[in-house]
Amino acid sequence: MNTTNKMSKQQYAYQVIRSRILDSRYEPGHRVVIDQLARELKTSAIPVREAIRQLEADGLITFTPNSGAIVTPFNEKAYMETLSVLAVLEGVATSLSSRHVTKQSLSELTKLNERMSEALQDLDLPLFSSYNREFHKLTYQYCGNEYLLQSILQTWQRLDSVRKKGTALRPDRMKKSIEEHETLIRLMSEKASEQKIEEFARRHKLNTLQAFLEKKNS
């Protein structure tokens, strides 16, 4: 019972801290105070400390000599490298998945894209990002290659660990992304060639990288 309880508290602490990092309530460089979190979560310091160790393994937390546990600082080089790899992986997976995509899935993709548009109108960036991830997960879930899917998941996790709030999210890019999603849905519904779908899906992701570079240099 004690072990189950301990693991439950550890996982709860893990989920709380992780969600705050990913939605940018804890921004890069934010100091994570164990005792403060333990009081907030009404638990001892032990499960919080273990959760932080788990987040360190995920790359979301870094330990420094002076500050202790902090949210991992933004790594620009790692972000660009990871997004470039994700573009290749998602491009291949989306093209393979296009062989098996269903009308129901296409309908769901359209709904997710509409929700992204609504989130953009409300300037709700975390919700926009959440729907965007759901959209892409649905585009490649039928690829039939479990290793490829795991590789994409791991690459997304690495991206989470090196990105920062609003890394490449600008209203003009967000609007363009929705338009590109509409094109991708059309290509899949029209049974375009796998090569064409792969090239478009890869370019779509690389356009996000281009938006980041333009924002950086502006």
Mean pLDDT: 89
What is the subunit organization of this protein?
single chain
Distance between the termini: 57 Å
The CATH homologous superfamily name of the largest domain equals GntR ligand-binding domain-like
Fraction in beta strands: under 5%
Strand order of the largest sheet: 1-2
CATH fold-level name of the largest domain? Four Helix Bundle (Hemerythrin (Met), subunit A)
Shape: elongated
Q: How many structural domains can be distinguished in the coordinates?
A: 2
Rounded to an integer, what's the Rg over CA atoms?
19 Å
Major sheet details: 2 strands, antiparallel
Q: Strand tally, please?
A: 2
Describe the structure.
The chain has 218 residues and is mainly alpha-helical. The chain has 2 domains: 2-71, Orthogonal Bundle (Arc Repressor Mutant, subunit A), CATH 1.10.10; 76-217, Four Helix Bundle (Hemerythrin (Met), subunit A) (Up-down Bundle), CATH 1.20.120. 73% of the residues lie in helices and 4% in strands. It is built from 9 helices and 2 strands; from the N terminus they run αααββαααααα. It has helices at residues 2-22, 34-40, 45-58, 76-97, 103-121, 125-140, 146-162, 171-189, 194-217, and strands at 61-64, 68-71. It has a two-stranded antiparallel ribbon. Strand 1 (61-64) and strand 2 form a beta hairpin. 30% of the residues are buried.
